[in-house]
């Protein structure tokens, strides 16, 4: 009796991309939520450094650069959903858009996010001499950003917790219970994406450590 040796190979070849890119709208939501959870932790550290900026200035600078990786991933995942929905992708159309209030504040959240981080990076590289010109932009955009981000986080907190639980708290049991094979839902790709974003941010933060010197020296004196 002949044995078909091609089926297992083709099935394996098909399963590999599914492990990385499967998941559809639910996978996109899980990636966005998990990234948001990581951002909350890192932003809490930033908030703590603002309270005691003197001794913690180096932490503020380091974590600020580290945040660039996951922030970029968050913008990419939400931007991907935006593009897929408004280009009439059937799965994203069925899922529907976010609630109207969240759609209204989304442009402000994105714009202030870009301004806060762009002005922070510009401050770091321009040095303390740029304090009078760039610092007001950084501070004002940060205040506006915090206000709108608070609304954004509160609204998305339940789905964020669900996303973290789905991919990082017994994911196999949860997905099997829903009839969804864990090797085909894209979890591997989401974990890899989030880990890569954190590594990217960490590498950036380490590379710019020499730029901390002028700021630390100026603050000390």
Q: Structural class per helix/strand content?
A: mainly alpha
Helical element count?
10
Shape: globular
Number of beta-strand segments: 0
- Measured by DSSP, the beta-strand proportion falls in under 5%
Which segments are poorly predicted (pLDDT under 50) over 5 or more consecutive residues?
1-7, 9-14, 179-183
Order of helices and strands: HHHHHHHHHH
Measured between the Cα atoms of the first and last residue, the distance is 85 Å
Q: How helix-rich are the residues, as a percent range?
A: over 70%
**Structural Rg:** 21 Å
Main beta sheet strand tally, sense and closure: none
Mean pLDDT: 84
Describe this structure in words.
- With 221 residues, this protein is mainly alpha-helical.
- 84% of the residues lie in helices and 0% in strands.
- The protein contains 10 helices and no strands.
- It has helices at 6-21, 24-51, 53-66, 68-86, 90-95, 100-126, 131-168, 171-177, 187-207, 212-220.
- Helix 2 packs parallel to helix 9, helix 3 packs across helix 9 (187-207) and helix 4 crosses helix 9.
- The protein is globular, with a radius of gyration of 21 Å.
- The N and C termini lie far apart (85 Å).
Which terms would index this structure?
single chain; 221 residues; mainly alpha; 10 helices; disordered N terminus
